Amino acid sequence: MLKDREKLYQIYHTILSMALNLACILTINQFFHLKASIAYTTLLSFITALLIYLFDQNRRNAISYLLLACVIPVSGAIFWIMKVNPVRWFMDILHWCWIYDRTDEMYVKYQANFVVLGVICMGAILFYLITKNQTAKLVLAFLLIAAMIVLSVNKYEINKAVVAIGIFYGLSILIEFYGAYYNKKAGRQEKREGILYLAPVCLILAILSISLPSKPEPIQWEGVKNLYRNVKEQIDNWVTEWEYFLHPVDRVFGVSMTGYSDDGGDLRSGGEVKKDSTVALKVTGAKYSSSMYLIGAVSNEYTGHSWEKTAKDPELSTQDYLLDYSELIYALSCQDPEVLRENRFIERRNYQIYYNNIKTKTCFYPIKTTWIQMRSDHSYPSAMLPNMTFSKAYGKGLSYEETYYDMNLNGEAFQQMLRDADGFSYDNAVEPSKESYELIEDQMIKADNIEVITPEDGLFDLLGKRAEWIRKEYTGLPSSLPNRVKLLAEDITADCETDYDKLRAIEKFLQGYQYTLHPQKVPKNRDFIDYFLFESKEGYCTSFATAMAVLGRCVGIPTRYVEGFIVKFSEKGDDNLFPVKNSQAHAWAEAYIEGVGWIPFEATASFYTVRYVKWKDLPKEGTQVRATYEVPYDEAYIRSLMNQSQEVTIDLTSEKYLNNNDEIIEAVIIFAAAIVVLILFVIMAFLILKLNYKKTYQKSDRNKKMYILFTRILRLLKQEGFTLEPDETIRMLSNRVRDIYHYETVTFKDVADIFMRHRYAGEAISEKDLYKVDVFYHGLFNMYRAEHKRFRIWMEEFIFLAKKSYR
């Protein structure tokens, strides 16, 4: 009788593990849109739980292990009959998991079903082991309750079957542990059969709880949410104040404040970008408007390794941003009235900005700003230079309103205006078209109540002095700049007739370079941009912006380096404002075209569509339609993205990097099951690849063995910094490596000679030759293994085997 009760208790735990596994796969199925039916998932959960229970009951029987061992040959036979490579099949499933974006276009039914099967098998083992341990069961119960509360707070819809399983599991564990506690307190021998009688009651209560009528909306938990937001916001404010206390000097904005690596402003420091989701600013605006670039810091002097703000005050009577706007109005008033009527050149935009978790002297503003109004009790910023700054650093509590004119940079008419400005000088400026000026004045300036400087107010004199000042401050290059940088700029722009076309050619050229969040460090005594253009050919936005500015100056065009934020009007926060996070910091270049003003350019390919948005044509006469935008198609941009690896085609302004609560909660739900499945799959794949590699190596002749070892040696040398460049021979690489590495008197030169004699002279590899290559490889590998962590070595080996595909 006692044995029967013990068996019933084990069956109860098997049912419990099956229920947990079913809840797990249903959640994963719902979140990832795997579209597996409830019948399929339930049947698989039942079968796997049953098989594990039977194996556990007969674990002392040798037949159980024999049957288990038969799984591998049976699976192999199935793959052989189906003529499918198991490793390739497994890799295809992993690849599908990586690229599947939960859309119908990417959905593949059989792969989704196999993923469900894999998760269920791994989950069945995991949950069966958990339910056999009392502490693990209790911890899981608390985690389950916490997860359900968090999901409810974040309004995440949960399958009712999952809720029922959670309630059933929670009640069962509660009764089981309370019974054990009561028996211990009463001094009785532990009796576990009580739960066997109450388990059906728990199941009935769980089913009733999800069957009762309920409101369609989940519990709002507003009190909990507000408490969390207030606590988080206060902590962020303390962190910001503490950082300001530690570094109070200057405190003018720079991207180094937002997660970019920085070593005293040295661009050569390299390092990985830290994805910081701290909300620095909050902005008003219309949802789904085109993105807005906020200028934070403008630098004029390139030193070869950094950008400095050394521009002197031009001593003009008008603020710089108003002069820049007035210059644009002058350019527009020189256009043909019909062209102005038929094309969209600019559009008025207004917004308010609120400082949040940032403390700085910088006043952020977009290019072509026309009006600034403080909304808080703070003094106005100084704006005689492009860098708008307050008298002291301000943080949370500062707010102001700004109006600016968004430029149709992708419009043909606007681009033609920039080309027509080539060769313009204020020394021989002409009066604008009266009709055009009145058209602009009637439709924009008067309506917006914005003051603009006119020719009658001395516009030409002011803009002429400013243009002269710009040419003096924004065209300089360091004497140490390698000549090949200038020659490259001249080569890129050789076929261009106007300054604007030259700038677009440079912009297009740079989009072919690699965008990465972890660029390599530039060697000392090397010019930063020379190394970027000719050596590394990879970097993040600071590299591309610097290259754009320097190459522009190399062909005589005034340029400046700008750092700031990109505001994306996609999702509002709970306060109905658009958050601007540190991860949205960016750098870009602007060029001065005399007669028009400063014009921004975007050399970073990942941000091209953010800057160049296509506006729809003007509506027909008699109708009023708000300007809308389209994403442009640009062949160079698309090609540059195709050339980039999945690892680095990351947009800093993309929502993928804006860590919100939903993503965190979803990750918590699937973390345990997904990690276990992934680790087991990777280990299994590695073992198979390793086995195939050894088999291939053992069956190979000496020639093939030497080639395999030589490939591994090249990989290790690359890790040590000796990369075989596309235009480099093995002999040239050997001359670079020299005798830095030598093992038992064998150097890389010896190994390279053996390889080249076989490769180019057709010489067969002798036993002695193979021994030398083997000695050098193992010596180099042992040195590398001693200097690096095991996990890194394991990962590199896995990637190597997967790429080589020794099957």
From TrEMBL:
It comes from the Bacteria. The chain crosses the membrane at residues 12-32, 38-55, 62-82, 110-131, 138-156, 162-182, 194-212, 667-689. Residues 533-605 form the Transglutaminase-like domain. Pfam families: Transglut_core. InterPro entries: Bact_TGase-like (IPR052901), Papain-like_cys_pep_sf (IPR038765), Transglutaminase-like (IPR002931). The keyword Transferase does not apply. Keywords: Membrane, Transmembrane, Transmembrane helix. This is Transglutaminase domain-containing protein. It comes from Variimorphobacter saccharofermentans.
